[in-house]
């Protein structure tokens, strides 16, 4: 287990070390677990652009809304399709499963977004991700493990389907919902291609990942990047000596990863299956 922990943590620790090491020194190699020349110029280069901060809040808003809506709507759909008395549950399930295997492609998808008037709109980040076929199957399978006696007793007491869903099913699905929430949040946080396709002409809707991708691309294309030099408040020659594509890439990786990693400690306690054990005694 110690070897496994070392193998797992070393790449991330090495990335942090490289991001804190002077770029011209990093090119020499031999950077492992401790920087040879400490510097924060790599992070200054990342945060030099004023668009980074607005992009950060756009990414946060996108991640939070996408996660909440996806969890609630997908769980509601999963509960509906898990009911044996619902006569259309099988054909509807098949339709959703088919979307996992077949796609119309990029161009028809773009024209669909255009016809829905979602281009250059914040809601283009939200509406397409409100329902997930894979998450629906996972949640529906979990709902199938909840004792049917709970639903039957609630119906005897006069509870309707929506009340049963909100008071019984949704709370008992907390473990699987926590897992799905992480999947959705990580996917929404890391996504940048939809920003490139649908909102690239509207700077105020750019996401953090898209801005970091542009910064990384510009640094990889040329070591002599005047924007980076100007952003860190140095001369162009001094910036080149401290900021290189390798060091920028490490700093970008850390900046993009740390916010979503902070969510894991708060969600970890929900990764326990069996909250409904003991709720029914037979």
Automatic annotation (TrEMBL):
One Pfam family cited in the UniProt record for this chain: BPD_transp_1
Keywords for the protein's UniProt record, in alphabetical order: Cell membrane, Membrane, Transmembrane, Transmembrane helix, Transport
Keyword Flavoprotein: no
Annotated TM spans: 56-80, 92-113, 125-143, 164-189, 246-266
Boundaries of every ABC transmembrane type-1 domain copy: 56-267
UniProt topology in membrane: Multi-pass membrane protein
Keyword Plastid assigned: no
Secretion signal, residue range per the UniProt entry: none
Principal subcellular localisation of the protein: membrane
UniProt cross-references to InterPro entries, sorted A to Z: MetI-like (IPR000515), MetI-like_sf (IPR035906)
Subcellular location: Cell membrane
Family as reported in the entry's similarity comment: Belongs to the binding-protein-dependent transport system permease family.
Protein name according to UniProt: Carbohydrate ABC transporter permease
Species the sequence originates in: Paenibacillus dokdonensis
């Amino acid at each position: 287990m110690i070897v496994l922990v070392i193998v797992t943590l070393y790449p991330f620790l090495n990335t942090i070390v490289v991001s804190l090491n002077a770029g011209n020194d990093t090119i020499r190699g031999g950077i492992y677990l401790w920087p040879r020349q400490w510097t924060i110029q790599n992070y200054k280069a990342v945060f030099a652009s004023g668009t980074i901060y607005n992009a950060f809040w756009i990414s946060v808003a996108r991640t939070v809304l996408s996660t909440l809506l996806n969890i609630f709507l997908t769980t509601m759909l999963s509960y509906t399709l898990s009911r044996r008395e619902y006569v259309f549950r099988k054909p509807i399930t098949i339709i959703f499963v088919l979307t996992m295997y077949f796609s119309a492609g990029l161009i028809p998808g773009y024209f669909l977004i255009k016809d829905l008037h979602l281009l250059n709109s914040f809601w283009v980040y939200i509406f397409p991700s409100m329902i997930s076929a894979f998450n629906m199957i996972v949640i529906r399978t979990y709902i199938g493990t909840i004792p049917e006696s709970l639903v039957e007793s609630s119906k005897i007491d006069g509870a309707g389907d929506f009340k049963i869903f909100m008071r019984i099913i949704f709370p008992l699905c907390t473990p699987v919902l926590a897992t799905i929430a992480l999947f959705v949040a990580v996917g929404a946080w890391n996504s940048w291609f939809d920003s490139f396709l649908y909102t690239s002409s509207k700077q105020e809707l750019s996401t953090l990942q898209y801005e970091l991708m542009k910064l990384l691309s510009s640094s990889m294309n040329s070591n002599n990047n005047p924007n980076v030099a100007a952003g860190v408040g140095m001369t162009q020659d001094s910036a080149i000596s401290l900021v290189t594509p390798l060091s920028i890439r490490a700093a970008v990786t850390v900046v993009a990863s740390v916010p979503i990693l902070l969510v894991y400690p708060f969600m970890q306690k929900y990764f326990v299956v069996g909250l409904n054990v003991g709720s029914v005694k037979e």
